[in-house]
């Protein structure tokens, strides 16, 4: 016999060979290897056995199918053996084989045949209740196989079910437990009939309730099914819940625990069906949250007694002979109740006010819970409540909502004293876990309600210091305590801490000196806050001087250390920057040395960015810290940073240079040399910072700008002005710079010189500039220069007949920009010139002229507004003149416009029935913006026109409302809120176009100011859903020559309706019945191309927003997706048809990938069938893979940016 060592080595070599991809076995060697390994599985030596099992994995994927069957047969036989070791190793072997099989979605034949073979043997092993350990192994493997390959065993599901059900009454609890696991995996993939059988069986047995022990098991089983397949059990809840409620009242703690756990899984997994029962569940949980029958809290004056009771605990139990704590299972009931409340709070956002009335006080009362595990869950449930309250949704913090009395936030505010009182005791508990929970609670509380603890700081600070000083506390606890202290200091007014600085400084300084870098790092953040608090002026004449030395010493020690963690380095730099910025005048001797350290840190690549920020802070200090000693070295280093390819560094450096006032002309030259490459359209923010630095220079060092006249910087500026991307902050910085530059009166850079540079290209080029935007930017610069030099007359050619269109365009725009700020009524021929331009052949010149007229009118309303109105009444060019009017209404001051409102209003009404849709839209925008000037009078008037007989007028009015809604709070909001319902009644208008416009307005409200429509959803949603249906009567056939072409007049309307639905997902999800919503999404999946694209997007959003609801409908949603992916385009179609179909397929695939992010989705039989269809079709598989790659890389990116 070979020694076992040699055997071991040989088996090991075999394993190494099997793992190589290159190995190929012929039939004979296959047979030998399989026989060998199966023999080794029965070897006496355990290590050899273990290796042989490991060889099974690679072997299964290498040998032919019938060999795999031999392996499986042998393993199944050995599993029934009476040798325990052989049994164990065989069951590990079977699990290894099952784990190696290709997944069900790949549709492999091997997996199917192996599983069928194993299933037959296992069901008989489970049914013969001879040897419990065999049964347990068999159940374990069965659960494993159902979990991985359940879909392949559909034909066996009935027989598996009938062998599992009797095991639920097995005398051995372990058998029952594993049976429940196996049933949990079975319901994920079984057909409907099997599922109904199982549920009916459970309901019958629970109804009979023969004995406590089996009833417990059946309740556990129901909870497990709900956890694994909540989307299927929903429809039976009406029958299940009353039974579970009944069993809660039975005096059996274990049963109660299982019942409450069942409730928790219903709440999390069947949100819709559980809805009517939530109040019952809450009241049961609240009852059992305080269920502690064997412990006596004296409620009268619990403050003192609770503390005594905890001290006397030991004696109390000693005296009570017949009762010991080990038998007390009531804590499990309390823990289940806390977890169930956590589930309710996390999933039912719409009940927040109710939670603050009933659940919040009950949880706070239980912070005193004596069982540590339960206490942690009580805290966790309260944290969930706070997280739900966080005003992340704009509508929660919405000013209108505040008027309605009690919002969750105001209710929480009123409970803060009670919370603090409960936490105050817990902060001094022995248990580390409890104290960590307290710090998490305080941190979250302050995030939800900044400033809420101002009154309570004196009570809390000692509790925090207790953990900082506690020798026995773990480092994590200290880190949590420091983090909590930091958040509280940042979110509360400084004066609240003044009294506590003496107590806080010693422990915080000690933490800065802690050997563990994470503690140091948190402590430095707190130190930085302490410095800010120390210098806040306040009534209680607080003096920070006694603490300056301690804070400085502990920080400088960390600042000097070279061999220290990166984060500590950075925070030490920031903290020292804060110290010098706020207290530098009191550290005259330490200052020079510290600045030199900053200079060193500036030269180091990993600390340079933080140091630049710290220097910026110091330079902007009100104490006027003298930085001259380090500037000659620092500025050249800063200038070199402008060359580095690190955007954040460039931005911070420009900000630092902008604020450093003590720079000399030599230093400025070094910086100017680096600027040209920074002024470019490739990074507008950097350009903006560079321009703002130049504007500062024009004020502080005007002489240095002399060298600009021939230099690169101006050329870069001129190129930037012509960029179509120039807008917003960068454009404003550009205008500021031109004004500052012309004010320096530098030779060669006067008004005319700059004007020529700006407009030269337009005059010299025969071709137009590539972008319309460029003309607008140049015009704005011209106007800025003109405003800065009021004495120079604007040099503008509009009349000149030789002018090209582009010169005219620029001239008109410049006139408009100048006229906006300067009254041009002294130019008598302006009006004629502009009206002539209205008849130009170029569209762009026409629209420039209409903009110019409007803009000039803003400069002098009495002169020009009546003129514009008169022209609108008399001339033919209404569209252009109305655009001028729109410009006037948008830009003029409210007080200037007030006198003309009536005139303008009556004029606009004449045009709101115009045939031309473009004109109507401009009129509607004018009406809307005019309404904002005097909403109290004009909004009711708009409402009156809803009765108009003309559908054009009705659509103009509804569109006008859209222009009164903006995402900022406005005085019109409360008025709008009261009457927007009347405008939305036009969703029932007989005219198609009016209904479409009403949907567009509704969408705008839902997007920009959801509070306007949240209360109306009950009446609006049915009408909205009504518009998503395809209307046969709106589809007509048009003959185009020999072809017939169908036109669907209802398409735009449906598209608008689906767009509204998409918007509502983001802003009003908690007010929508998601299942009705899904019905319409489902219809949309079968509609026209544009609507399919929209509903695919909705599905992806829904998968992340409410996965459990989507799961319940999965089968109905998969079918249309599958249809889209398998549609073939007719071979003779045009190219666009093929492209459209490809787009649809990609979009549908994106939706499929999103659905698969729901953990249980791939267990659905239809979905797994669809998946195997995808993987077997080359084109679809390629699309699927590329989308999966994209989505996983996108997730990685979003994690990086956060």
UniProtKB/TrEMBL annotation:
S-adenosyl-L-methionine among keywords: no
Q: What is this protein called?
A: Cullin-associated and neddylation-dissociated 1
**Location within or outside the cell:** Nucleus
The yes or no answer to whether the keyword Transferase is present is no
Q: Which residues form the TATA-binding protein interacting (TIP20) domain?
A: 1012-1174
What the record says about family reads: Belongs to the CAND family.
Keyword field: Acetylation, Nucleus, Repeat, Ubl conjugation pathway
Where is the stretch described as Disordered? 299-327
**Main localisation:** nucleus
Gene transcribed to yield this protein: CAND1
Provide a GO CC annotation, any one: nucleus
InterPro entries referenced in this protein's UniProt entry, alphabetically = ARM-like, ARM-type_fold, CAND1/CAND2, TATA-bd_TIP120
Q: Which GO terms describe its biological process?
A: SCF complex assembly
């Amino acid at each position: 016999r070979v020694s076992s060592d040699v055997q071991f080595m040989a088996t090991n070599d075999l394993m190494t060979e099997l793992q190589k991809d290159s190995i190929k076995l012929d039939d004979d060697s296959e047979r030998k290897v399989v026989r060998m390994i199966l023999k080794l599985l029965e070897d006496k030596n355990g290590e050899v056995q273990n290796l042989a099992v490991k060889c099974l994995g690679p072997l299964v994927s290498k040998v032919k199918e019938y060999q795999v069957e031999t392996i499986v047969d042998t393993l199944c036989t050995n599993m029934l053996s009476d040798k325990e070791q052989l049994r164990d190793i065989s069951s590990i072997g079977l699990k290894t084989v099952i784990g190696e099989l290709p997944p069900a979605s790949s549709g492999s034949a091997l997996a199917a045949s192996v599983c069928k073979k194993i299933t037959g043997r296992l069901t008989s092993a489970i049914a013969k209740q001879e040897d419990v350990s065999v049964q347990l192994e068999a159940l374990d493997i069965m659960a494993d196989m159902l979990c991985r390959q359940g879909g392949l065993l559909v034909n066996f599901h009935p027989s598996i079910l009938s062998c599992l059900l009797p095991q639920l009454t097995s005398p051995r609890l372990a058998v029952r437990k594993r049976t429940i696991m196996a049933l949990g995996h079975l319901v994920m993939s079984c057909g409907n009939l099997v599922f109904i059988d199982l549920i009916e069986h459970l309901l019958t047995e629970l109804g009979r309730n023969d004995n406590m022990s089996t009833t417990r098991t059946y309740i556990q089983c129901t909870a497990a099914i709900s956890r694994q397949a909540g989307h299927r059990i929903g429809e039976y809840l009406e029958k299940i819940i009353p039974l579970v409620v009944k069993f809660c009242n039975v005096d059996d703690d274990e049963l109660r625990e299982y019942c409450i756990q069942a409730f928790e899984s219903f709440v999390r997994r069947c949100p819709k069906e559980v809805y009517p029962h939530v109040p019952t569940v809450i009241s049961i949980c609240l009852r059992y949250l305080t269920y502690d029958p064997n412990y006596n809290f004296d409620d009268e004056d619990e403050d003192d007694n609770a503390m005594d009771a905890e001290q006397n605990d030991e004696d109390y139990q000693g005296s009570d002979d017949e009762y010991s704590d080990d038998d007390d299972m009531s804590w499990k009931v309390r823990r289940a109740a806390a977890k169930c409340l956590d589930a309710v709070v996390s999933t039912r956002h719409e009940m927040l006010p109710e939670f603050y009335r009933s659940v919040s006080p009950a949880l706070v009362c239980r912070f005193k819970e004596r069982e540590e595990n339960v206490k942690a869950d009580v805290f966790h449930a309260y944290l969930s409540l706070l997280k739900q309250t966080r005003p992340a949704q704009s509508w929660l913090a919405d000013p209108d909502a505040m008027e309605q009395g009690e919002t969750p936030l105001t209710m929480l505010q009123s409970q803060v004293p009670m919370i603090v009182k409960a936490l105050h005791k817990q902060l001094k508990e022995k248990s580390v876990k409890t104290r960590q929970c307290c710090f998490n609670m305080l941190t979250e509380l302050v995030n939800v309600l900044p400033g809420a603890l101002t009154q309570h700081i004196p009570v809390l600070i000692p509790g925090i210091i207790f953990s900082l000083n506690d020798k026995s506390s773990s480092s994590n606890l200290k880190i949590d305590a420091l983090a909590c202290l930091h958040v509280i200091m940042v979110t509360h007014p400084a004066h609240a801490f003044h009294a506590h600085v003496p107590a806080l400084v010693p422990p915080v300084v000690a933490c800065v000196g802690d050997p563990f870098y994470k503690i140091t790092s948190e402590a430095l953040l707190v130190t930085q806050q302490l410095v800010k608090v120390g210098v806040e002026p306040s009534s209680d004449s607080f003096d920070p001087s006694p603490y300056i030395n301690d804070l400085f010493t502990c920080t400088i020690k960390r600042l000097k250390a070279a061999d220290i963690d990166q984060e500590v380095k950075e925070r030490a730099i920031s903290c020292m920057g804060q110290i010098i910025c706020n207290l530098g005048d009191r550290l005259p001797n330490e200052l020079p040395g510290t600045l030199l350290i900053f200079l060193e840190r500036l030269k180091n690549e990993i600390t340079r960015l933080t140091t630049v920020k710290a220097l910026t802070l110091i330079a902007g200090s009100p104490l006027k810290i003298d930085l001259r000693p380090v500037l000659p070295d620092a500025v050249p280093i800063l200038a070199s940073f402008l060359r580095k390819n690190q955007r954040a560094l460039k931005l911070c450096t420009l900000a630092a240079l902008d604020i450093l006032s003590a720079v000399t002309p030599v230093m400025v030259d070094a910086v100017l040399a680096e600027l040209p490459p920074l002024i470019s359209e490739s990074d507008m923010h950097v350009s903006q910072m560079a321009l703002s630095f130049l504007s500062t220079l024009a004020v502080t060092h005007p002489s240095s700008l002399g060298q600009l006249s021939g230099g690169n910087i101006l050329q870069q500026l001129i190129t930037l002005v012509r960029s179509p991307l120039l807008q917003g902050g960068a454009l404003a910085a550009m205008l500021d710079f031109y004004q500052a530059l012309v004010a320096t009166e530098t030779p060669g850079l006067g008004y005319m010189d700059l004007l020529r540079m700006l407009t030269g290209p337009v005059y010299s080029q025969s071709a137009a500039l590539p972008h319309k935007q460029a003309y607008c930017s140049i015009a704005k610069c011209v106007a800025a220069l003109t405003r800065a030099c009021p004495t120079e007359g604007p040099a503008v050619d509009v009349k000149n007949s030789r002018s090209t269109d582009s010169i005219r365009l620029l001239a008109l725009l410049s006139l408009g920009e100048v006229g906006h700020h300067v009254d041009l009524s002294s130019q008598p021929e302006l009006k004629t010139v502009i009206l002539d331009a209205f008849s130009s052949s170029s569209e762009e010149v026409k629209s420039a002229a209409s903009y110019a007229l409007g803009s000039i009118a803003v400069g002098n309303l009495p002169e020009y507004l009546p003129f514009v109105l008169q022209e609108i009444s008399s001339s033919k060019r209404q569209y252009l003149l109305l655009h001028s009017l729109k410009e006037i209404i948008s830009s003029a001051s409210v007080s200037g416009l007030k006198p003309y409102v009536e005139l303008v209003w009556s004029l606009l009404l004449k045009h709101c029935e115009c045939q031309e849709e473009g004109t109507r839209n401009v009129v509607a925008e004018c009406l809307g913006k005019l309404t904002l000037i005097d909403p109290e009078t004009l909004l009711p008037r708009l409402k009156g026109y809803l009765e108009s007989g003309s559908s054009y007028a009705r659509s103009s009015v509804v569109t006008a409302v859209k222009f009164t809604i903006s995402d900022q709070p406005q005085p019109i909001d409360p008025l709008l809120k009261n009457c927007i319902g009347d405008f939305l009644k036009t969703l029932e208008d007989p005219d198609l176009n009016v209904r479409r416009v009403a949907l567009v307005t509704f969408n705008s409200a839902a997007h920009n100011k959801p509070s306007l429509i949240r209360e109306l959803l009950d009446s609006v949603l049915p009408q909205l859903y009504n518009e998503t249906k395809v209307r046969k009567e709106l589809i007509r056939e048009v003959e185009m020559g020999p072809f017939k072409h169908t036109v669907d007049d209802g398409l735009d309307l449906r598209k608008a309706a689906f767009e509204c639905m998409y918007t509502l997902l983001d802003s009003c999800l908690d007010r929508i019945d998601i299942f009705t919503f899904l019905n319409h999404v489902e219809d949309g999946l079968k509609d026209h191309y544009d609507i399919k694209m929209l509903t695919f997007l909705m599905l992806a959003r829904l998968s992340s927003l409410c996965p459990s609801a989507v799961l319940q409908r999965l089968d109905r949603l998969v079918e249309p997706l599958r249809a889209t992916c398998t549609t073939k385009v007719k071979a003779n179609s045009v190219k666009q048809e093929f492209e459209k179909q490809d787009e649809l397929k990609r979009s549908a695939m994106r939706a499929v990938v999103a659905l698969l992010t729901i953990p249980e989705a791939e267990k659905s039989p239809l979905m797994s069938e669809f998946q195997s269809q995808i993987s077997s079709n080359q084109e679809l598989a390629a699309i699927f893979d590329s989308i999966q790659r994209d989505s996983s890389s996108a997730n990685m990116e979003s994690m990086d940016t956060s």
